[in-house]
Amino acid sequence: MQLPAFILPATLGVWLFYNQHQFEGVYWARHAEWDPWRAALEGASYYDLPRWLHWVTGHIGIHHVHHVRPAIPNYRLRECYDAVPELRAVKPLTVRRSLGCMRLNLYDERQRKMVSFGDAAR
Question: Is the pLDDT reported for residue 1 higher than 80?
């Protein structure tokens, strides 16, 4: 009984973390080019989950706001997102789009985008 109670939340946690940092259009840059504002807004997703799932996960799907200011408590992420127009300009990652993210395993620096292992081998 304890194993399923552990596996389900652990799987959800890994899924959320992966989709918050590895998605199509993500911003990655080397030290000399790195821009903290872009890294926060484009390097972390706004995972547009159903409202109830935002509540269950402590609103961590509004992950780009967390990266802008990590000190904001999770229960205030939605409030900040709603109050600041620049935060709402981020393209949401839907649950449907997130399914395709599982194939994005590597960052291709030449193309400046996430690619699959198969794409990288070509």
Answer: no
